[in-house]
Input
Amino acid sequence: MEIKNLKKAANRILKAIKKRERIVLYGDADLDGAASVIILKESIQILGGEVAAVYFPDCEIEGYGISKTGLDCLRKFAPALLVVVDCGIGNFKETNLAKKLGFEIIIIDHHQVLGKLPNASIIVNPKQKGDKYPFKELATTGIVFKLSELLLGNQMRDSLRKNFLELTALATIADMMPNEQENKMFIEQGMASIKNSWRPGIQAFLKMEPFEGISNLSQKISKLVSILNIRDLQKGIPASFRLLTSLVEEESQNAIKKLLNQSEIKKTKISNATKEIEWQISKEIEPIIFMGSTKWEIGFIGALASIMCNKYKKPTFIFKKGVEESQGAVRALLGVNSVCLMEKCSKYLLVFGGHPRASGFRIKNKNLEKFKKCLIKNL
Ligand SMILES: [Mn+2]
Output
């Protein structure tokens, strides 16, 4: 049993390599997206192909998923095969726009399907209708790892396989996918070889002072994951991608120091925002937490929502308020499917999507109050 369309996607990519078509990779800027892009890019290169461009949208500026900004940036590469990883399943309009610009689109995603599918030429998503693959909880990197096995065949040497599994393990942990079945296997195998990883970025990390002292491997890994999950884009490339593809250990160490610093700053910001929220919710008792501020950053609203949701056991909607639009992160406890809940109120939203317990949305500010009321009514 194979994931629906996985073989089809592999064959299409192989054809593109053979015919020297231009290939463009488009990934979410979190660790799952970045690791997926790395595995795919390196697989294509091993097969003698070339990747014309990689693109990661900056959530702070252009929002989540396939963006108009991103497509404007990439249109000079059309006609090309555009492979979108770890996002795209909710990008109906943008997929059509990409087609109009001359891209053929493959979407490889694991986020919840929203009623219909975007108009891409191939969609790989274990959660789509008609997919009989029994395990639905793979991270996108897990799916892409399986794709790389199909692409490379017997060119997948043991050391490469181990290395890709290291990335898959890190991304599966970062995306908080359940540690069971195939994920468990990926995590176990990836962890087993990570100490001997040939990626200088990983070696740099393991040798650095604050981590050297941690003897417990899984603690070390969770620290590494928290650092790699910082969406620090420089010239459009996230820190995780830079670090995991870096060829120089020293350069990586400097990058890690910067990220450690950023993660401290992030912690302070989150703790300040937590106080603000707690002061607010002490005044009003509602079945959901629904709060936004112009001061909060996209970079930490997800973590902030997780903390509030776990502490107060309520579905939590935290958003960064912009001039006309807001962008939010949602967390819910087991038993509440936040994507389905938002689907019921989708007339107020510009974009939404994600996983049942961790998702996001974009909305016009004038609809915020109506959206909130609708959520409470449909809870
Ligand atoms: Mn993901």
